[in-house]
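Lab meeting minutes (informal)
Scribe: AK
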Amino acid sequence: MASWLAALLTAAGGAIGAATASRAPRGDVVTRPRAAGPGELVSFVGEPRDGRPAAPLEGVLFQPEGAGPFPALVMLHGCTGLRTPAGAIQGKLRFWAEHLRDLGYVALLVDSFTTRGIDEVCTGRHLLSPVRDRADDARGALRYLQGRPDVQPDRIGLLGWSNGAAATLSVLFDQGTVERDFRAAVAFYPNCTRNYPGGPDFRPYAPLYVLVGALDDWTPAAPCMALVERAQAVGAPIAIKVYPGAHHSFDAPATPLRYRPEVRNHSKPGGCCGATVGTDPAARADAIAEVTGFLAARVAAPRD
């Protein structure tokens, strides 16, 4: 683990509590304490670049108990989307949103698909660029949260999974600052072979923590390890943790290991097809602890 990350996680204990103790509403906005809820449907627009139109978007907002203002997190789903075919929030995403809400964050699960008429982008039936379109979605979600009176606008982080992790890397590689944009980000098993802003010399503008499985055959660990090594060599605030024995989606709750033959897989010759996904209980437990500590130190804690 990089020394900067080790130091941050050592200092993380009590960071959420310290941030909570100092919460006060901003300006003359009056807020009332509330109980933590199951999630509220909200609407906002993306923040496009390069002349792209601003896409209307939806998300599900999870709010902590109390008046705030709170630190907040933008959360980007993978290629299967935010919801199951039955309309329920995917179990992995609901777990993380509720876990982080209960730690004192406003958590916004961004839905990049519904308003665009897309159900999934895993198989290639629909296409949506994580590097461009979904990066716009993340920036729009950031601005939406910054405009809420129950959110601390300078303490917002970003999390993404797989396709959403690719969007996370794209956002962090772009021209941003921790003062105006995201304070820190976590990328779960991104595709590190995509053409991101900045190219091979990318440097994230904010601390970035990449978590991958050593046995991931969909978004392999090796390209991410090489990307992180290059970025660290030029002093970028980035770290990676590789979990031995873990496959793609290792942090999903109670999901048996299985092979998905229908999905596109750019890590295979010709980009087709198939990948292994499923829970690794040890990796999942460790990732929960690592991400909790990282966010406490880099998002919830006051800036020095």
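Next up, CB showed the second protein from the same session:
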Amino acid sequence: MSVESRVRLTRRPLVGVVLFMALCAPRAAQAAGQTYRLQLVRADGAGSCPSALQIESDVSQRLGRDPFSDEGERGIDIVLSRSETHWQAKLYLRIDSSDSDAARLIESDAPDCADLGKSVALAVALAIAPELPQQAERKPEPVCPPPVAVPAPPPKPSLHGEASLRLLFSPNLLPTSSLGTALAVTLRGELVGASFGGIFYPESELQTADAHLGFGVSSAFASGCLWARVRDPQVWSCIGARVGALHSVVYDPRPEQPGDHFWWAASSELGLRQHLFGRLFLEAGAAAVFPFVRHRFQVNAGEGAAPPATTRTVYEQGPAVVEGFVGLGLRLD
């Protein structure tokens, strides 16, 4: 006489399988250590259900061993099908000779066959080893979001000083191309600062047919500066003024007004600075100088002769002077 047990599953397949375990429990001692031959048939409409290999893998994972073999001593036959409203699994669990006609029916109204497949695997595992503990549904562990990175506070503007010694070159400040030196001291914050110091151009000689002269410049300067780029290489520009003296030396002929002449000018500077190591830096740049006082130096030609003497200009500064510089400096904190 054929025996059929029916278990209907809702969306939680473990509810029905607990009942199914009771049906299989009496065979526990006999099933231990035996091998089983599993055969699975997927009827029309059940093509999406798990395959025999998937069921065997699930059962082996639950038992912690592989109880299946093609030459198994006992047979487990499973038929999966789909009706209009639910999934069905008919299990023939021949755990021992007395189970030859025993059938178990599991049904599921889940939207897909995955839940039914899990229930079938659990039912087979419990039939083989009823002492297998129930696997509680694992709730996904909450995923802690990564800690929010707190941005570092912006660096506070630091007021500091800088000093640099510069080598100057100008093609037209004096009658001939000239080299000079400058000492520049800068007091600055992050973006703005002030620069001041001194400039010296040694005497540059000018010799013509009727005159032998020498000219030099020494002045102090002060400028307001803006740093357009504070990362290396740094870029800055300054606008300021120079005040000093234009030195004139007359070797020949006899001078009428020898000595120093007041000189002042406006200046605009653009520079580039690169940190080397420690507090040391290298800088280079160019400046435009606009003299407010343009002294004119003249020679009286034919002096002492009967005709009136003629006057000839031998040197006069232009309206704009170009100057380039390179320097080596030290940051003073």
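CB comment: The chain has two domains: 3-128, 160-332.
No objections, moving on.
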